Amino acid sequence: MTILLQKNRKYISNKKAFIIVLFIIAPMALLIRYPLNGELIVDGIDGLTNVMGRSLLIQGLVSGEFPLWNKFLANGIPAFSLNIPTFFLGWMPIQWSIFFLICLHVFFAAFFMYLYLIEIKCDSIAALAVAVMLLFSIHLGGLRKMHPGIIVASSIFPVVMYFVQRYLNTRKMKYTALAAGVLAYGFYSSNTQYVSYMATASGIYLFAVSMKNKVRIDEVIKALAVFAILCRQRGCCIHGTRGERDRRR
Hints:
Elements: H1 2-31, H2 33-36, H3 44-63, E1 69-70, E2 77-78, H4 86-89, H5 94-119, H6 124-135, H7 148-170, H8 173-189, H9 192-212, H10 217-248
Antiparallel strand pairs: 1-2
């Protein structure tokens, strides 16, 4: 029995390793021609916004004069917004920085979609098939490759759903906090509109499945409170700035 368990663990480990390698290599193979030819994957206003944000952050850090707040975008956002990955990728040439930004998030989308489907007891082959379809979907591997903000936003939703489902399966509050933390990252690093929809949908999902599974109401309230509090600071920033803007009129 012990030998069988060890063989089973080894099989599962090898299977996950194969899936990770597949999800890393696939988006790179799809997009590598852009940086190799010295081309940007992005273009148009969306691409320029990403490049300008990256340039602002790097120049600010070098000069020591980095603005903390941008009052001209989305009713006011932290100037740090859209630039969290730049701290890790900004030292590269811009073509490679955007290439790795997109490939990294597409990998997270596919891998965590696979993990989420496994959490809800989906067949592993079916889970893998769905994850591969997501990997090459329009929002990730297709037309939306020109919009890094939407790609990043779309990529984090499976991560959020995985952590929400892990909480529902284990009742460990840390997974709720992790889900909210991923959404907070999305608010500051991607398309705010998309992430707002995700926060609403995942919160409703958490409540509905908890009720279906007959989770104690105090546990549901506690989980939703943790989830909401850790995401709420973004909403406070937006509404607070809108109020300040209206007073100046």
